[in-house]
Input
Amino acid sequence: MTPLPRGSKRPITTSAIGIGLATGAYGLSFGAISVASGLTAIQTQTLSLLMFTGASQFALVGVLGAGGGAIAAVLTAWLLGARNGLYALHIAPTLNLRGLRKPVAAQLTIDESTAMSIAQEPNVDRSRHAFWATGISVYVLWNIGTLLGALGASAIGDPATLGLDAAIPAGFLALLWPRLRDRAAWAIAAGGATIALVLTPLTRSGVPVLASALIAVIAGYRLRDRS
Amino acid sequence: MIWAAVLIGSLGCYLEKLFGFILPPSLLDRPMIRSVAALLPIAMLSALVAVQTFGAGQSLVIDARLAGVAVAVVALLLRAPFLAVVLAAAITAALLRATGLAA
Output
């Protein structure tokens, strides 16, 4: 295909930077919440550099902070990150990568870069540009945000006095909100919350959230032929 | 213990992304897998909201966090950005505690 004039990619780059800045603000709250949950600033930064998928990162520190233990925290993060693999599956043919670019692109495969890339389909050239521009912009600004948030929270005192323990569920709610698009989503959300609350007094911390994954499996089985 | 969770958690999340690039599509591209992976964040994020709002170890309590989350709902309905939602919740809880209105 013929390469597009440079000008047609500029709006994509601008949006990519805008999304990066918005995500940097998420990063700021992630950094603060992670430190308030008991991780060090370096552990917090390592998550943003290596894990680099927001919901999994919030979940890992949330479960650890609530005393759920490492195994439940890791499993929760993995289950939440499974969707990234399907994003990769979807965009791999468009990106058509060889060699070292493949493992690099994998790390940048998240909600934002995938959504931006898909929005440019079927124009392959723009779709690739959107993926890389958004992925790199979000990676850099998410990590800068994390650093500032972690250092800021390290400098201040008791998380409960500052209401940071209320910021944690609010953060999860803000991640959940855009996914509540239809009646089925609301039903699944209600089911997940109910299972978790019923199990909280009965099981050790960390198990209730893992158990809520069953709702997704059952609903996923019943809705498998939709969409 | 925390380091193990950070590193093993990160490795797994990276491999999930990489598998989508290197495994044959026929292995992953099934309606059931697609559907479950899309629904997992809805069920689990909702569970996390519930547990982090009401949980205190193995007991369920109502405290300033609930007021914070209620204010977060209002902020989300007003289409506030992520940081504003989180800050609104934190400030609400902090104020209720500072004034002795909630634990």
